[in-house]
Write a structure and sequence with these properties.
The structure is a single chain. By secondary structure, this protein is an alpha/beta fold. It has eleven helices and 14 strands. An eight-stranded parallel β-barrel has the order 7-8-9-10-11-12-13-14, surrounded by five helices. A four-stranded antiparallel β-sheet has the order 2-3-1-4. Strands 5-6 form a two-stranded antiparallel sheet. β8, α4 and β9 form a beta-alpha-beta unit. α3 packs across α4, α3 packs parallel to α11 and α10 runs parallel beside α11. Bound molecules: phosphoenolpyruvate and manganese (II) ion.
Length: 337
């Protein structure tokens, strides 16, 4: 953190600000120019709010040169984190292949999709039981009944499950039944939910908020980690831009940026990004090529009659074709499926 003082401040002013720096457990390093004086703060400034210094009448500006997140920060944890999802490793040399329907409709539907996806190489099964819909009149998900269907399919074919938790209400049920708990884009800044997820044993899949910056997203991961759960996987799912031809704009730059700034695994969801099934294949390939630790892809056995997000769902056949191509890209990157 660097504090720039206003021009021509007195010695007394400088001493007062230096005193405030020491009060926060930091060591001031003062450089006096002809007009401007700058105080560098040596020490850990992650937890310090710049406003503590900004309110001083002699302070012009405070610049944070260190990121405001600590636990997720690569600088303090250089090796990549590998998150264990009931035996499936996410991060490092492994590719997490999450596939399944947007929403759970019936046991037969999920069983058919899950069997086909697993045969093509998927190692995690997704399915929404509680759906965060933009319209209150749209299908809201089968709720606990849907979750039980997903669990039954997991037990039947042996594949860990991923499902979205909407509120703290069902947190214990999810902790008991769901292998990887998803926090959706709309809940990325539900700080109460994030804090509560710090107390669960299950790993968390944290999707990027609709218009969240990298820092806001990582700060949300920090909430979960600071509350006691270090097992966070980030998920890029596209962001809002001025473009409205696609549902969202897939920001693949987030993959190398997140990898550089944090040690957490990051997976990409090309389905919710583009909103169109034919965009999924090229964007999934690009995501793996960019270094993503995995993919979340919506697959439906009858996309044309799907209760939710049919337009962006791949058929099991298309998913199988994509997986064959992805294996080759993964090999080049030294990742195994
Ligand atoms: C989902 O994965 O089902 C979903 C609703 O995605 P998002 O939160 O990214 O919109
Ligand atoms: Mn969906």
């Amino acid at each position: 953190m660097v504090i720039a003082l206003k021009p021509y401040v007195s010695d007394q002013d400088i001493k007062r600000v230096e005193g405030k720096v020491r009060q926060k457990g930091l060591t001031p390093h003062t450089v006096r120019g002809e007009e401007i004086t700058i105080i560098g703060c040596i020490g850990n400034t992650v937890m310090i709010d710049p406003k503590f210094f900004e309110v001083d009448p002699s302070v012009d500006r405070v610049v944070h040169v260190q990121e405001p997140y600590k636990l997720a920060n690569r600088a303090f944890h250089p090796e990549e984190t590998v998150v264990d999802v009931s035996g499936v490793q996410v991060g490092g040399d492994h590719l997490a292949l999450i596939a399944g329907p947007c929403s759970i409709e019936s046991y037969e539907q999920v069983l058919e999709i899950a069997g086909a996806c697993k045969a093509s190489g998927a190692n995690l099964l997704r399915g929404g039981a509680f759906k965060p819909r933009s319209s209150p009149y749209a299908f809201q998900g089968l709720g606990l009944e849907g979750l039980n269907i997903l669990c039954a399919v997991r037990d039947e074919i042996g594949i860990p499950i991923v499902s979205e938790l909407l509120s703290t209400e069902f947190i214990d049920v999810f902790n008991e039944k769901v292998d990887l708990i998803q926090v959706g884009a709309r809940n990325m800044q539900n700080f109460d939910l994030l804090k509560q997820l710090g107390h669960v044993e299950r790993p968390i899949l944290l999707k990027r908020g609709l218009s969240a910056t990298y820092e806001e997203w990582v700060m949300s991961a920090e909430y979960i980690m600071d509350s006691g759960n270090p097992n966070v996987i980030l998920c890029e799912r596209g962001i809002r831009t001025f473009e409205n031809y696609t549902r969202n704009t897939l920001d693949l730059q987030s993959v190398p940026v997140i990898k550089r700034k944090t040690h957490l695994p990051i997976v990409v969801d090309p389905s919710h990004a583009g909103g169109k099934w034919w965009l999924v294949e090229p964007m999934a390939k690009a995501a793996v090529a960019s270094g993503a630790d995995g993919l979340m892809i919506e697959v439906h056995n009858h996309p044309e009659t799907a209760w939710c997000d049919g337009a962006q769902s791949l058929t099991p056949e298309n998913y199988s074709d994509l997986m064959k191509q992805l294996i080759k890209i993964a090999e080049i990157l030294g990742k195994s499926i």
